[in-house]
Each structure stands twice: as C-alpha cells, then as structure tokens.
Amino acid sequence: MKLSQLVFKSMQKNMRHYYLYFFALIFSVTLFFSFVTLQYNESIIAATKVSGTASSGFEAASYMLYFIVLFFVLYANHLFIKRRSKEIGLYQLIGMTKGLVTRLIAFENILLFIGAVSIGMVLGLLSSRLFAMILLKLLQFDAVVTMTFSKVAVVNTLMVFGVLLVIILVQMAFMVRKTTLLSLFNASKQADERVKSFSVFPMMMGAIGLGLIIYGYYRSTVLFTGQTTNLFLSMVIILATTIGGTYLVFRFSVAFLLNLFRLTKKGHLNLTDVLALTPIMHRMKGNAKSLTLITVLTAVSLAITTLSYISYYSASSSAEDEMPADYIAVDGREEPFIQALKQEGIAFEQKTFRLTSAQFDLATIFSGDVIGMFQGNTLSDALIIPLSDYHQLNSKVQLNKGEAIITGFSGFQSNIMPIEAPIDLTLLHQESEIPLRIKEVNDTAVLAWRVTAGGFIVVVEDSVFNQLQRLNSEYAIGYSTQEQTSINLTNADEETYKQVEKLYKQTGANVLFKSHEGSTVNKLSSQRSTVEYNLNLFGTTIFTTAFLGLAFLLATGSILYFKQMSEADEEAESYRILRKIGFTQDELLKGIMMKQLFNFGVPLLIGLLHSYFAVRSGWFLFGTEMTTPLLITMTLYIVMYIVFASLTISYYKKIIKQAL
Amino acid sequence: MSILIARKVRKTYGKRSLAQEVLKGIDLEVEKGEFVGIMGPSGSGKTTLLNVLCSIDQVTDGFVEINGQKLQGMKERTLAKFRRDELGFIFQDYNLLDTLTVKENILLPLSLSTIPKAAAEKRLQDLVSILGISDILSKYPNEISGGQKQRTSAARALISNPSLVFADEPTGALDSKTATALLDNLSEINKAKNATIMMVTHDAVAASFCSRVLFLKDGQIYTELYKGDKSRTEFFQQILNTQSVLGGEQGEA
C-alpha cells in the first residue's frame, strides 16, 4: 500500500476523529476570511471613512483575530494528536520510521487544510454579507451591501493559513519526534491527579489564590482614583493578581474544597459525586491551566465587548453632554442664524448664557490624593454664569449671599475626583478674592463641551457675576468665550433638521473661535451631527470588538466542548461499568449535567466576575451608562455558554448510550 | 427454589446471510445457594450466555427468569434497576472506577438506594473482613494489587445482597496463588451468606471450587458435572477429563 492510499484509508475510517479538527479549521477560516473580506469591501470602506480610526481598527482587529485563530487551531491540533496517539504508536510499532509517520500525518494535515480553507472561504463569503449588514446597521448607514469576491482577502487568508499550516506541521513533527512508543500509548491517560489526603500546602495555596483575586478586585475599584499614583503599574498588578489567583484557585482550591466535601461523606457517595465531583477533582491538575486561560479570555473579551458597547450605547447621551442643545452658537454669532430660522418660519426656543471667568485653587476642593496628579500646579480656571441665566434651566434655584452651585460636573471627572457639597471655594482674580460656599454639585450640562473644555461651571449671584465681569474687562483671564446661545427646535421633523443643519453652517453660527488672520477656525457641531459622529466612531469599534468577542467566545466555548468530548471518550469505560452494575442512562446523565454545570459554570462565573470588576473600574471613560450594556453582553455570553454546555451534554448522552 | 430459569435461550449476532448463532437453545436452572461454573472452549458462547442471563445483552429467542421475574419485556430503565437491586457482577478486568477509593467503589451500588448509612457500613465491614481488604479501604485502585482489585470488585458485587452474582473469568488476570485465595473467599461467601454465584471460567482449577459445572460447546450445553461429596482434587480431575473429551483448546486449562 502506498503512503497516499494509507492516508486516504485511515482518514476514511477515522472520520469521527477528524471531523472535530476539521470543523475547528473550517470555523477559523470562515471567521477570518469573512472579516478580511469585510475589511476590503467597498461599501464598508465608504461607510467607515467618516471616522479616520476605522481602518486601523480593522487592521488591529485582524491581527488579534489571527492570534485567536492561531491559538485555537494549535489547541485543536494538540487535542487531535493526543486522541490519535495510539494510532501513531501503532504505526511505529509495525516498523514505520518516525520520519515516515511524520510525513504521513503531514500529508493528512495538508489535505485537511486544503479542504477546510476551500469550504471556509465559501462559508466566509456568505457570512461576510451578514456581518456587513450588521455593521452598516450599527453605523446607521443606508446602503445595499454588494459583496464582491476580494482577491486581496483571498491572498491574505491563504497566506495566513499557509503560515499556520507550517506552524502546525512543525508542532506535530516535534510531538512525534519527542514521544517514545510507550508514552504514545499512555498519552490519553496523563494528567490524572490522585488527591490523597488532607494537606496544608494546597489549602494555603488555594487561600492565597482567593486572596490575590480579592486584592486585584480591590485595586481595580480604586484604579481611577487619587489613590493610584502609577496607572500602568496598577493595571499590571491587577492583571497579575487576578490571573495568578484564578490559576491557584483552579489548581488548588477546587480540588481541595471538593476533597473536604468528599471526606465528610466517609465513602458513602451519591451518584452525582461519583460522576461529577470525583472526575473533576482528579482532572483538576491537568485542567487548571486551560480553565484559567478560558476564564481569562472570557473575562477579557467580555470586558472589551461591554466597554465598546457602553460607548455605542452612550453615543447619544454623551452627545447630549457634549452639546446640551440642538444648536449652540457663541459670542453673538447666532444672529444671522436666528434671522434665517425666522425667515424660514421654523419654530425654536433660545437660551442665552453670559459667561465670565475666574481662577481658583484646586487644592481647596479636591482631596490630597487627587492633588498629587497636578504636581504642584493647582491654580485653575473656572467658568462663571449668573444665577438669572441659570434660571432658564432651573427656575427653582435660589442663592443666599455668598452661596454658589457647581454645575456641569459629570462623566469621568466626577468619578475620578468627586466633589462633595457643601464645600468652600474661593474665586480669585489677580488680587481680588471672592469666598463662596458651594451648596450643591450637579451634572446638568449647560454649556458645550468645546466651550468649557471639560471644566465645571460655577453658578453665582448676579452681583458676584457683574463684579467678575468688570474685573475681566480690565484684565482678562481664563476663557475667551463671553456668551453662549443654545437653540432648540420645537416640533421639528427630520427634513427640518437637515435644512437647519445647512443654515447653521452657512450662517457661520457654528464658528467657535477664529484667529485674527482667519487661518485657524474652530467649529462647533450640532447635537445631531455629534450623535452621528459618535455612532459612526463607536459603531466600527463595537463591530470589530464584538466580532473579536464572538471569535473569543466561540473559540473558548469550542475548546471547552472539545475538552469535554475527549473527556467523555476517556470516561466511556466508567459509564460502561456503571451501566453494567445497574445505573440507568437518565441517572448517569443527571450526574453529567452537574459536571457540566461546573465545567462551564465556574469559568463563566469567574469570568463574569472578573469582567464586572474590569468594566466597573473604568467604564466612565467610555460612556454614561453601565448597567444595561453590561447586563445585555453578559446575558449574551451566558446564553452562548448554555448552548455549548447543551452540545456537550448531548455528546455525553451519545457516549453513555453507546457505552453498553 | 430456582433463582434462575432460562428456557430455549437463543442468541444470534449479525443479520440474515451473515447471521451467526452463538447460543442454540439453552435450558438452565440455578438453585438458591448454588455455585455454578460455566466452562467451554473459546467461542463456545460462555460469555454471551452470561451476558444474556444477566440482562446486559438481549436474547434473540426464549426467556430468562430471575427470582420469579421475567427479564424479557422489561424496559431498559426497569432492567437497570433490576440489575442494581438483584444482581452482582465480577469482571475479569475488575471494572473499578479509577477516581474512587476502594470503599467508595464497594459502596457504589448503594449510592441510589435508601439503605441507611449505618446498615451499609455494617455490610461493608462484614464483607471486607471476609475478603481481607479492611486495611486498603482508603486506597485508589491504581495503588493496590490485582488480587485486591478483584476482591474489591467481589465486595462491590455482594454489597447490595443480590439474589445472584455473575462472575466473568474473575481469575483470568490473576496468578494462581491469588486466584486460589479469591476462589476460597468466593466459596466461603457462598456458604456463609448462602449467596448464589454463577461463574464463567476456562480454568479447571477455578471450576473445581464450584458445586456444579456446565460445559458449553458450540452454543449448547454439552454436559454438566456435580461436585457432590467429592473432594476438590477429585472434582478437578473429573473436570479435566470432561474437557479432554470435549476437545477444542484445552491447552490453556
């Protein structure tokens, strides 16, 4: 028999072993190819042009995707070879040289790759259309997706998987070379741990693991506060403690706790203990690494997906923070705009805020921790508006003499450096000092973000305002903007908004700042275009991150599934014994369900916890709403895990059924 | 009183033209307290007969009745419960679960029963003291010898006080000394607890511990021998003689 014949024969007979690996390959190609096709699609390029970061985002994501695919395929290949160790051993036993065995498997792998890449590309082309539609929907971009077969994408995918094939071949050749006949026959039996008896070491290590995780969580909650002096170092510490802690928990705590529980039973185990508890305990040593990896990957992808979803979800509310009115004009530039609106008969209402500036010492309102960040330079500008103007927004506010309120204090600022009212604040202007008592701090957006540049606004009595205005007319400090007019359309429809958008630009009402020579012009955007811009910017981000999240999720889920498949194969013998001595299939399946609850549930639970703390530590940098996006993404992950767990259980069901 | 009654049991493997009849109509009765051996050359249908009798495999024709209950017509689920409550098993390759200690392995059949822990513990202590494995209860199967594994397996088979214990080549993987010790244990339990045991073996020495030995040839019962009042050595000689008449592969005996 020729080598090629042997290969075909063995592939035919071993379809069951191949199909898993083959599926993993096809899946990777599909995912990668559809993503790359998308990257080079004309309509997508057109849609994402608006945000300049999109193409680099796509590129970064494709590198990430390559790593996911690499990691996933390497893992699948590793499992695949392990499952076939007996076959490889047998070839060597009948006198094949290692070189010949390597060539045999290499030949197989090349065949598998050719098949998988062809099938995967076809599937990828089909699925990329779906992904493209999702992306354009996210960008609120109305366009018919025309899917073209991109040559660049094909070449790209072929190259990537060509390189991957070479890596796989090297991995495999290495594995065949380094294994002895004996170890090949035993490969599937390795990594069993006999938990012998009560010992202090695992208990200590397990406790340290838990401690590390809790410490990491604690550090994450204070990450963006004054307590953190070195942000990068803190992040490294948090990552190291949580990941290390997770490993220790899986490696030591789980088996230890289960063993304690088991000892209390004094040998009288129930069936669930037999089917779930003891196998988990015994496999923990071998599984700790992969469970840690899966947990961390789940946490990372979940956190990234959630954060980008937070950005997308908050696109309109953060636009409202940036642009608190439909249209905003400053320093009297609204006049021609208002005239135009009146001419067109468009109903609107306007609010005008007079502005002036003062200085204050940051050290007087922020705690010592925060002040450290300013490195001694604590003199800052504040925008001041009079109470009578503020009444346009909230007519109920009354100020006694010497009182003031702080408004427009929101977002990450208020999270990082909170101010608690009541507090004393002294406004400064050269030699003048105006002591004030801040009686309230709120997050109402009054002025455009481009006007405040992120600073907060102090609402003062009109007399104080007039005094500061007078001082500034003699010697101007701080902000140059003297007045802001907010214009909101009433009962306007889509068409009107489009028309007004044009007027806003034509009349020059959107100019924020113009240098004397007219060379530099800073412009404001309407609230609507800000929302659009945000959606566009975050739409691409959320798409790429969601795509990566999906890839991560499918990869981790599949790995858990593959692992459980080979575990089921290894334990078929136990199920045969149990069925022989009289346990029904249903009874066995109940125990298996408990085992899967652990296998999928624990990495998911710890992953969810990790990602919750990761998101909580810095979500305010990304948007204005945490709970809903977090819950939605978490639910999605839980559902996907349930799907994988059900697949696993149905595989076990098959194994149990066939066992006798 | 008959514990086991089998009538016209036939078993065919494969379909139509490829069909091979392994059991060709077997009639058999086993009384309570008997220690029955089944012998025969390789391929005579010993193990198939045992599997069919103990409900792990289905008959093609005929029926099997254990303790007055007919196995044919029982549902899969009922059969499993029946095996758990009424039958005990000892296999050639021990069939112990690697992840459980000796004690946990022995108590396994009781894991779904309602027997109180104290009662279960008493049964366990009873058995392990007869079998001499009291001091390895907390060990794992890979830490004990083959003989100890097989005793553990025997204890597991007996823990539920079954009506009938099936043993499939229990001494097959043991050296002769260990095998003899195990068989001594089995016949002691057979006498002391009045347990009914049915054992498949191709080893004449093992068979000589039984009270009755059935010889199978080509799927039919060829003959049977009763030990009666004979000594074990005499019975052993008689078994050897029968085997040589039977022909086939006796070299292994």
UniProtKB/TrEMBL annotation, chain A:
Protein species of origin? Solibacillus merdavium
* Keyword Electron transport set for record: no
Identify the residues that the record assigns to the ABC3 transporter permease C-terminal domain, covering every copy: 61-178
Report TM segments: 20-40, 60-81, 110-132, 152-176, 197-218, 230-258, 291-312, 537-562, 597-615, 630-652
One Pfam family assigned to this protein is FtsX
State the UniProt keywords alphabetically. Cell membrane, Membrane, Transmembrane, Transmembrane helix, Transport
Instruction: Spell out the protein name for this chain.
Output: ABC transporter permease
The record's comment on protein family reads: Belongs to the ABC-4 integral membrane protein family.
Where does the record place it? Cell membrane
InterPro entries reported in the protein's UniProt record: ABC-4_Integral_Memb_Prot, ABC3_permease_C, ABC_permease_BceB-typ
From what superkingdom does this record's organism come? Bacteria
Q: Does the keyword Membrane apply?
A: yes
Topology relative to the membrane, per the entry? Answer: Multi-pass membrane protein
UniProtKB/TrEMBL annotation, chain B:
Q: Which GO terms describe its molecular function?
A: ATP binding
Give the UniProt keywords, A-Z.
Answer: ATP-binding, Nucleotide-binding, Transport
Q: Where is the ABC transporter domain?
A: 4-243
SUPFAM superfamilies in alphabetical order: P-loop containing nucleoside triphosphate hydrolases
The answer to keyword Cell membrane applying to this record is no
Family statement drawn from the similarity comment of this UniProt entry: Belongs to the ABC transporter superfamily.
Full protein name: ABC transporter ATP-binding protein
Identify the species of origin: Solibacillus merdavium
